[in-house]
Amino acid sequence: MRRPNRPKAPVQTALLTIVLLVLAILLLEGLHRLYHRSYEETQVPNDCFAAAAATGESAVPKIVCLTFDDGPSCHTGEILDILAEQQVPATFFVCAQEINEPYLPLVAQIAAQGHQVAMHSATHKYSRIYQNTDAFWQDIKALRQALEPYLPLDSLTWLRFPGGSTNTVSHKYGGSSIMKTLKTQTEEKGWHWIDWNVCGEDATAAHPDAAQILKNIQEDAKGHDTCVVLLHDAKAASHTAEALPEIIRWFQAEGYTFYTVEQMSELQSGDK
């Protein structure tokens, strides 16, 4: 006697349906990826990110800007020689105090070697420059006049406030809102200002030696993919040039690329 055909178990039917559905989804996903691989945009907006993107690394390169305040000085020539030997650019925030005057012609050499010259102060005297905003801009005017024989003034569009933009010493002379006003006025002029996030502490009263300056920088740089390093090109900073080669080698070993402040800004804004 022929047995009647039994219907497939409901569970088996459900499993077969699920398997077919998964296969259909995978097929559609494969076609989707193939389409976008053929027609997607392949140009990288900024070439400096291309290598990192190709290797699957972070799209943000590790950046370091070496900045030197208060020069030019008797140490400028040695600093420039080291930078040239290591092929590293830097930014010099210069002054025009009496102590700087014999070395001001070096500003032309700084620029000629591909470094950035930026504004710091003519006098660097807090009690004078922070009396009010007019006093500050008169000081910057005097600085620009002192630098005019050595480089085009239109190249001077970056500045660093003496003591940094967060200093509270200025409040003693010009009131609690003076720094906020000065930052706004700087931007209204179409200029730029910058502080730092890594400090060598090379101009402190402790007068650290080269090894301690390097250690200070290593400690401050921890956790930063972008480092703006404060160093000093001043007579009193007698160990800065000595520390500089090791500072450069350490950042290189840590995978950083060196830029001037202006180059860094252009890089981060996507400009060429």
The mean pLDDT is 85
The helix tally amounts to: 11
Computed over alpha carbons, the radius of gyration is 29 Å
Q: Quickly give the structural class.
A: alpha/beta
Number of strands: 8
Percent strand equals: 5-15%
Enumerate the spans where pLDDT stays under 50 for 5 or more consecutive residues: 1-8, 25-58
The string of secondary-structure elements, in order, is HHEHEHEHHEHHEEHEHEH
**Helix share of residues?**
40-55%
Shape: globular
Oligomer: single chain
Task: Show the helix and strand layout.
Elements: H1 10-39, H2 50-55, E1 63-69, H3 76-86, E2 91-95, H4 106-112, E3 116-121, H5 126-129, H6 133-147, E4 158-159, H7 169-174, H8 178-188, E5 192-193, E6 198-199, H9 210-221, E7 226-232, H10 240-253, E8 257-258, H11 261-269
Parallel strand pairs: 1-2, 1-7, 1-8, 2-3, 4-5, 6-7
Helix pairs in contact: 3-10, 9-10
Structure report:
With 272 residues, the chain is of the alpha/beta class. It has helices at residues 10-39, 50-55, 76-86, 106-112, 126-129, 133-147, 169-174, 178-188, 210-221, 240-253, 261-269, and strands at residues 63-69, 91-95, 116-121, 158-159, 192-193, 198-199, 226-232, 257-258. Strands 1, 2, 3, 6, 7 and 8 form a six-stranded parallel sheet that branches. β2 (91-95), α4 (106-112) and β3 form a beta-alpha-beta unit. α3 packs parallel to α10 (240-253). It starts with 9 loop residues before the first helix and ends with a helix.
